[in-house]
Structure to design on (328 residues):
């Protein structure tokens, strides 16, 4: 079974990245409305030491993006509890379980989870192996290049491979790097030269040019895109258009429909202020997409509107002036 098939035009497998906070259900559903990606990964489910996995797993909905598959990502450090959670999610219809070895948040790493697993390849292997053995569905890993540095880089990727995971997604920054320095694509190329299982590249893919450059320079087997998809919801379509050689030019009304879908999926118990804040978070990324928009980003983020419709009536004309999603 090829988990990372290319499409009929040779475009590699494209995944929507899990992103805590901004990459929630309303964003995933709005992105599914736009389409263009082959699979999404849900933001991680924490598996603490005192976990009751059945109750924790209830937030995962397998058909949330149907027909686009939605993989489940779990994060923890107890092998048995991680295995139990994987079994529960598998029973709930998850097509794949992804083990989080990359979250840099201090509240996560302080409990030995996320990128803390990169401190000791033996523990990483034990946790991943327990999940692999627990379920019949594919298990994968998303990891960073290291914790404080890359001194254990090769040991970690080989430990992951030896655990039996089907492929690895690599975000080539360390935990200490956070999201600051440029992603080290050379480490993706290095991992690809060492591994015998497929590898997905992740990090700093903001344009079609970035996507093609990563594929060409690293040899990775697929792409996972996070921030780039927020800044440009049509990026996946544009990458596919590069391979099909059929131009894809999103229209302004397509973007308006994206916002409508986003608002429609915002939880009903959110106050008007929270709904505006969610829109500000989304627009904050979009206004980073080019220089002309960046100049007006703070104006949008500091707006005092408390009603979503009034806020959009203010922000969207500013966005339209500098809208450049057609360009890559």
């Amino acid at each position: 079974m090829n988990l990372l098939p290319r499409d009929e035009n040779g475009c590699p497998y494209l995944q929507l990245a899990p992103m805590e906070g901004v990459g929630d259900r309303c964003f995933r559903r709005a992105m599914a409305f736009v389409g263009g990606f082959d699979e999404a990964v849900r933001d991680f489910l924490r598996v603490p030491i005192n976990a009751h996995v059945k109750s924790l797993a209830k937030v995962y909905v397998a058909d949330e993006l149907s027909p686009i598959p939605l993989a489940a990502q779990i994060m923890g450090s107890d092998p048995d509890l991680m295995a139990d959670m994987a079994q529960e999610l598998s029973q709930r219809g998850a097509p794949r379980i992804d083990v989080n070895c990359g979250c840099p948040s201090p509240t996560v790493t302080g409990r030995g989870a996320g990128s803390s697993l990169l401190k000791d390849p033996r523990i990483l292997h034990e946790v991943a192996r327990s999940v692999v053995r627990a379920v019949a569905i594919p298990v994968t890993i998303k990891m960073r290049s290291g914790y404080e540095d890359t001194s254990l880089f090769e040991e970690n990727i080989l430990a992951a491979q030896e655990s039996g995971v089907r492929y690895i997604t690599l975000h080539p920054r360390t935990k200490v790097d956070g999201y600051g320095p440029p992603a080290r694509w050379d480490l993706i190329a290095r991992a690809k030269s060492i591994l015998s299982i497929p590898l997905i590249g992740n990090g700093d893919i903001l344009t079609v040019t970035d996507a093609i450059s990563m594929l060409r320079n690293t040899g990775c087997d697929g792409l996972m895109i996070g921030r780039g998809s927020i800044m440009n919801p049509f990026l996946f379509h544009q990458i596919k258009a590069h391979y099909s050689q059929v131009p894809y030019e999103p229209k302004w009304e397509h973007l308006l429909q994206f916002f409508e879908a986003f608002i429609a999926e915002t939880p009903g118990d959110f106050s008007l202020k929270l709904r505006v804040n969610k829109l500000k978070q989304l627009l904050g990324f979009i206004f980073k997409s080019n220089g002309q928009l960046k100049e007006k980003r703070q104006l949008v983020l500091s707006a005092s509107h408390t009603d979503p419709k009034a806020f959009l009536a203010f922000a969207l004309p500013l966005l339209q002036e500098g809208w450049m999603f057609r360009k890559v």
